[in-house]
Amino acid sequence: SATLYVVATPIGNVTDISLRALHVLSLVDAVACEDTRNTAQLMNRFGISKPLLAAHMHNEREAAQMLIARLQAGERIALVSDAGTPAVSDPGARIVDAVRKAGLNVVPLPGASAAVTAISASGLVNDEFHFVGFLPAKAKQRESVLQSLAAAKPILVFYEAPHRILECAAALKEAFGPERQVVFARELTKLFEEIHRCPLADAEAWLRADAHREKGEYVVLVDGAPAADEEGDAEAERVLGILLAELP
Ligand code: SAM
């Protein structure tokens, strides 16, 4: 019956598509997608052919109305973005909101998301994370966002475009200090996947060490601020060290 399926798609390795996603893509009446060419390619890979409807950032409101009309006529529709999970730094949220408000059925199909994929292999030991997504492109606005996060305890999760990765690393060091741990998760699930962890002090050197590193897609993780008592402990130890050195 009339349902909007929110379907996650691969973030690089096409075989990360789920069996359920393939099943749903084969049974729906149409697929609403961010970029019809991109989605046509994915569907071709699996021999699935469906009417494709454009639902991108610039037409999300109108797309929502069009999809609601089709759902009200009893259609089943899949919603996908170019890569990963729709509505996460991608179009989809407004459509889902409108469809739910119209009292229609929404069913999510979980799958790849770059953020969670990066966290899982980062080795950062922290029970919490804070998804920031893309930082503002303008330096002033970026600084103020980063400043507001400087004392946060969760892992901070950023998405970054390759042409801004060096600038991003410099801004992170400025905001969080040279000792804070950063993880660059680059080209996840693809041929040149790299996951590199270092203090922010060493980030620029790592990025510059290989020309490929200014290309490709990045998730950047910054570990949370050390707990106040850890900082206190470190400070106490430092003072104790000085005192002990002075003792006869
Ligand atoms: N909806 C997607 C998700 O669930 O992860 C995110 C889409 S957002 C427009 C694209 C950004 O996600 C890229 O700029 C990059 O920061 C990150 N990303 C997507 N695929 C990636 C990959 N294979 N490796 C690293 N980062 C990736």
From TrEMBL:
Top-rank lineage group of the source organism: Bacteria
GO MF terms, alphabetically ordered: rRNA (cytosine-2'-O-)-methyltransferase activity
Organism: Pseudoduganella violacea
Biological role: Catalyzes the 2'-O-methylation of the ribose of cytidine 1402 (C1402) in 16S rRNA.
Sequence similarity: Belongs to the methyltransferase superfamily. RsmI family.
Listed EC numbers: 2.1.1.198
Name of the protein: Ribosomal RNA small subunit methyltransferase I
Domain Tetrapyrrole methylase: 3-203
Record bears the keyword Cytoplasm: yes
Cellular component, GO annotation: cytoplasm
Compartments it resides in: Cytoplasm
Keywords: Cytoplasm, Methyltransferase, rRNA processing, S-adenosyl-L-methionine, Transferase
Enzyme class: transferase
Chemical reaction(s) catalysed: cytidine(1402) in 16S rRNA + S-adenosyl-L-methionine = 2'-O-methylcytidine(1402) in 16S rRNA + S-adenosyl-L-homocysteine + H(+)
Record keyword Magnesium present: no
Residue range from the parent sequence: 25 to 272 of 301
